[in-house]
Amino acid sequence: MFNILIVMTYATASALAAGLIGMLYGLPISQALMMTFIGATICAQFHMSLLRRKDKKRTARDIRMLKAAGLSFQKSLEQTSGKIAEITQIVETRTNENNRKIVAELQMLEGLMREFANRISNKAKEIPAQPKPAALPTPQRSTLNALGDSALLEMVRTSLEQNRVDLYLQPTVSLPQRKLRYYEALSRLRAEDGTVIMPAQYMRIAAPAGLMSVVDNLLLFRCVQVMRRLTQKNREIAIFCNIAGDTLADPEFFPQFLEYMHHNRDLAGRIVFEFAQGALDKAGTAGETNLSYLSGLGFALSLDHVESLALDFAKLKRLGFRHIKVRSATLVGGMSDAKAMVSAQDFKELLARHGLNLIAERVEDEKTVVQLLDLGVDFAQGYLFGEPRAVRDDVLKESPPAERQSGPAAVIPLKRAS
Hints:
By secondary structure, this protein is α/β, with parallel strands linked by helices. The chain has helices spanning 2-25, 29-114, 116-119, 122-126, 140-146, 149-161, 199-206, 212-233, 245-248, 253-262, 277-281, 284-296, 313-319, 328-333, 344-353, 366-374, and strands at residues 165-174, 180-190, 196-197, 238-242, 271-276, 301-304, 321-327, 357-361, 379-381, 389-391, 395-396, 411-412, 414-415. It has an 8-stranded mixed beta barrel with strand order 1-2-4-5-6-7-8-9, surrounded by 4 helices. It has a two-stranded antiparallel sheet with strand order 11-13. The protein is elongated. Mean pLDDT is 77; it is low at 132-139 and 394-418.
């Protein structure tokens, strides 16, 4: 189309020039037209030749640019492939490191069980072994409570020796969204016939016999293994791992515990160690030094079983405590009985000034949730959001306990590691 316009332009110029030449020189119009037409054709051809040359240069430039872009893309692709290979190698290396850690943890666990007979307290050894209790009828809890201390201790010892210690997880959620934020790890012992021995039952017997450090040791290994699996799914989740007061004061176990956590500092921020208020009150200088060393490794601490709110919050912060669990009933109506220095409305702000998070526990109904929201509570735990669920294997599935149907016999299904 553009070439036609050029030809028409030159043709028009040729006609005008022919008329002008005819008038000036008196030539016949046909001869003048022929002369000017030939000249116009030559000019048009020259003009179009220049345009074609310009187009060729532009096309050559575009081809060079495309080749350069292709080379740049190929170079970027090679660099990306190299980075992917590097990342793959890093992931494989870290996976192998985690697998080696898990194997080492299992070996330590086996060693713990082999040494169990040597580490058991003299008091437990002196108690004569009782015949194995018969199969327990339901209800199990009341039947266990009816057992004598010697029979129950023998059941606890047998459960520990045979590694029948189960890990249970209970969710802690954020308010008001009710989004899963933490798990609390709880241990349950299992008798030979499958009867579940609750903490309130076995701690009464295990603590005087010096067996709580064994229970806590087993619980710790379970928490570390599960936490490594959980972080592959969600790095925002943390596990609260309970440590008994007797374990904190155990001069044999706790130094080993600190050394073990020193080699697992990569889990700092993902495992929170929880101590009862009574254990902290009895910790003494040595216990507080241990707590400070543990928090110095990067592990946060949590205080639970809080009976009195007349606390030294500055000291708690200095020791490394970052969370305090208070019963919901205390927050909504028992602050004065708990010797709180401020009202429930101001308690959360008081904790925040000392870098402490408030977690309301034992929340069992919606009315309590509304009351906690009025007090500005950010985190809550209780049967309303999910009961403790047993962990039966190594790798947690996607759905958390808080999102599943509740029930005392519910189990968190886990996949077995290859």
